[in-house]
Amino acid sequence: MISIALDALGGDFAPDVVIDGAIKAVNGSDGTFNIVLCGPKADVEAKLKQFGYQGNAISVVDAPDPVAMDEHPTDVLRKKQHSGLVTCVALQKKGLVQASVSAGNSGAMMASCLMILGRTSENFARPPIGCIVPTASGSSILVDAGANVDEKPLVLKDFALAGSVFAECHLGIKNPKVGLLNMGEEEKKGPVAVQEAHQLLKTAPINFIGNIEGRDVVLGKADVIVCSGYVGNVVLKMLEGFYELHQKMFGKIDTPAGKKFDEMWDYRTAGGALLLGLKGTGIIAHGRSDAKAIEQAVKVAYTFAANNVPQKVGEKLAGIQ
Amino acid sequence: MISIALDALGGDFAPDVVIDGAIKAVNGSDGTFNIVLCGPKADVEAKLKQFGYQGNAISVVDAPDPVAMDEHPTDVLRKKQHSGLVTCVALQKKGLVQASVSAGNSGAMMASCLMILGRTSENFARPPIGCIVPTASGSSILVDAGANVDEKPLVLKDFALAGSVFAECHLGIKNPKVGLLNMGEEEKKGPVAVQEAHQLLKTAPINFIGNIEGRDVVLGKADVIVCSGYVGNVVLKMLEGFYELHQKMFGKIDTPAGKKFDEMWDYRTAGGALLLGLKGTGIIAHGRSDAKAIEQAVKVAYTFAANNVPQKVGEKLAGIQ
Question: Which of A208, A228, B151, B321 gives 20 to 30 Å between its CA and that of A158?
């Protein structure tokens, strides 16, 4: 039985949507996983009761400390060991759960996973967020979706390697096409770090298809989109914004295309992104998550944990580095 | 009478679409402007004949040198003085035309405008591309849309000033809301250069609304979106990609919302972006321009020149710098 730790106070609409989402997730799980809610025990239990939950697939671990969205990650690690966020990761380290999910402070979640779970390889300096994003032709892996900034070319190369093995292990794509996000196809275009990364990727053991542009991201030219965490975050949020704009302008379009668009482009169906290159499953869910997004994040965490995705990614990374 | 110089060999589908677009532009101009096509004279005249043009609103200046899309800007300036691109700008410097348009090598067009037309202020180090982009609520100015890379914080501040006065002079927005594109609302988020730019913008003589995210770009939270040319180019191309994806999935939607979306989001209606902070009107049209996009780029150039937008931007910039 797989257990998933969920930060009860993580996210803009916690704890209500987190607890609602947790209940929806276990109710639809056919008993394949349990959830351990980490948060202020009395409050969380009262909320579970309020939502009418009476099953035994959800337990609660007391973790009373709140974590603010703008709290510095190292401060959280040092001073908020009894927060839901840190407790989720600590339980995984102890082997009591197999995955940790938080929609809270993403920097703190990343730092906790990095410091508590550890990297799969010491060569792998800065774990990125690998996020599945919708495209015109299906989905791609965006890496880094926002864990890092000001990356050196070698770090961008690590992102490419991690994204490539993630696409292989998780999406089942053989020899995935890896594109470097830039402002033109030419090698000599773009910021210096991106130009240097281009040169490194040419000889890396991946299927590097060269630079791609913003248009190619949306149209799905690459299976793996490599970029700085800053740019990746802009890309991810624009994809979300586009879905919202579309909903606003057109509402629900009741055609096969409309249904496909809703299925693929609603950010809530992605359900959260995986930190790559770590010894364990750390899922960063969206701060704006509603209950459906939390439910989906837990399901995604289950898939990663059940399929040993982090371990497979780690082994493959060690093999090609 | 305003004359507009148009690079006959600029763009992926030149010269055919350029000449077709030029004819469409003058036919719809009510005689308000002329076009001077700069390119290999015999070829251009033959094409004009082939397209059946018999009016006198289009003239041709011989400029036989071709410019490749990946040719280095300074090489173009040094070795390709008889190219359509450089000739367009040189004619403006001489006062023979009031605006220059090219869909060719954008780096070369920028360098030519910078070196030949000159900056409005010596304090203004790196002229950005100001581009009108569609949002959920109307349009915003994206600055820089791809002229620069690896900008220092002071350069990002210049972009904000230029974007703000451009929004005022061209879109008529009083006290436009200026947002800094980042990966979170918090001041301490993002690349170091962006964090430092944030501090500079707080005391700049503009209506700075703080950091905005990718979602806010699409939803239209700011009138002016300030970012590095690299990121701006990714943003611009993603907006184009969204429109293409939408066309692919849904085709033409025959409702008021569908028509509005087509009008606003079809990249061809934007018609080209203005280089800001220069003594003159240099328009960079899209490399993939078709005849409709070229027609629109010429019309946009006319609007800028007729309304003295570059001069107004220059005066306002000088006033607040």
Answer: B151
Q: Cβ contact (<8 Å) for B215 and A70? A: no
Start-end of H helices in chain B = 16-27, 41-50, 73-79, 84-93, 106-112, 153-171, 192-202, 214-219, 229-250, 256-265, 267-270, 291-306, 309-320
Structure tokens at A271: 């359900």
Q: How confident is the model at residue A321 (pLDDT cuts 50, 70, 90)?
A: low
pLDDT tens column, A49-98: 999 999 999 999 999 999 998 899 999 999 999 999 999 999 999 999 99
Q: Are residues B78 and B52 in the same domain?
A: yes
Q: CB–CB of B96/B36 below 8 Å? A: yes
**Where residue B148 sits, what CATH number does that domain have?**
3.40.718.10
B149 chain-A contacts, CB cut-off 8 A? 183, 190-192
Domain coverage including residue A188: 128-267
Q: pLDDT tens digit string along B106-164?
A: 889 999 999 999 998 877 888 899 999 999 888 999 999 999 999 999 999 999 999 99
Record the tokens describing residue A122, joined without a space. 């010491």
Residues B216 and B241 both lie in one domain: yes
Q: Is B147 helix (H, G, I), strand (E, B) or coil?
A: coil
B216 CA to chain A: closest CA distance, Å? 7
CB contact under 8 A, B241 and A218: yes
Quote the tokens at residue B211: 């950091």
Kindly list the distances between the CA atom of residue A260 and the CA atoms of A137, A216, B249, B250, in Å, as whole numbers in the listed order: 11, 20, 9, 11
Residues A169, A308: Cα–Cα separation, whole Å: 9
- The answer to whether residue A272 is domain-embedded is no
Contacts with A49 (C-beta within 8 Å, 6 or more apart), sequence order:
none
Q: Give the H/E segment covering residue A41.
A: helix A41-50
| Shared-domain flag, residues B32 and B101 | yes
Q: Note the pTM of the prediction, 2 decimals.
A: 0.93
| Bridge partner residues of A89 (DSSP) | none
CA distance B124 to B147: 14
Among B137, B245, B265, the residue to mutate for chain A (most A Cβ within 10 A): B245
Instruction: Round to whole Å and give the CA distance between B231 and B149.
Output: 9
Name, in order, each residue with C-beta under 8 angstroms of B53's C-beta and a sequence gap of 6 or more: B19, B23
Q: What is the dihedral of CA B145, A197, A242, B246, to 10 degrees?
A: 90
Residues of A in contact with B192 (CB under 8 A): 149-150
Q: Are A216 and A222 in contact (CB under 8 A)?
A: yes
Question: CA–CA separation, A267 vs A242, rounded Å?
Answer: 10
A131 - beta bridge partners? A142
CA–centroid distance for A78 within its chain? 24
Cα B217 to Cα A119: distance, rounded to the nearest angstrom? 35
